[in-house]
Amino acid sequence: MGNALTHYLKPDVMPGPDMVPTFDPLMGFESRKERVMIATQEEMESAKLPLEFRDYCAHLAIAYQACRSDTFPFVYKCAHQKHEYLTCEYEDYVLRMKEFERERRLLERQKRLNKAALA
């Protein structure tokens, strides 16, 4: 998608992968729900969930992992849990991409407004 090249050419309007949001999350919204983790740290540790799966979909990963261990070797019976988990992961990915694009557009807007104020 050209993110590396765009980040190199326009570093002032392209947020990096480790950049925290610089704008108010409610800017442009009437109200917005804050995302919360459903699974607690203790639940994830007791389920021995690997670090790469400890995200907003961790509660579904725990349910899927438990189903797989309960129904082994007939793991096809866990198709519903797997589908729920993968759908959650996809929706999380889409939300993160939307937040990235929102941050990029707000940075461009801020740059455009600053340029107009100086002229």
Automatic annotation (TrEMBL):
Signal peptide: none annotated. Residues 90-117 form a coiled coil. GO terms for cellular component: mitochondrial inner membrane; mitochondrial intermembrane space; respiratory chain complex I. Pfam families: NDUF_B7. Keywords: Coiled coil, Disulfide bond, Electron transport, Membrane, Mitochondrion, Mitochondrion inner membrane, Respiratory chain, Transport. It comes from the Eukaryota. PROSITE patterns: CHCH (PS51808). It is a peripheral membrane protein. InterPro entries: NDUB7. The keyword Metal-binding does not apply. The keyword Disulfide bond applies. It is found in: Mitochondrion inner membrane; Mitochondrion intermembrane space. Belongs to the complex I NDUFB7 subunit family. Accessory subunit of the mitochondrial membrane respiratory chain NADH dehydrogenase (Complex I), that is believed not to be involved in catalysis. Complex I functions in the transfer of electrons from NADH to the respiratory chain. The immediate electron acceptor for the enzyme is believed to be ubiquinone. This is NADH dehydrogenase [ubiquinone] 1 beta subcomplex subunit 7. It comes from Drosophila simulans. The gene is Dsim\GD17187.
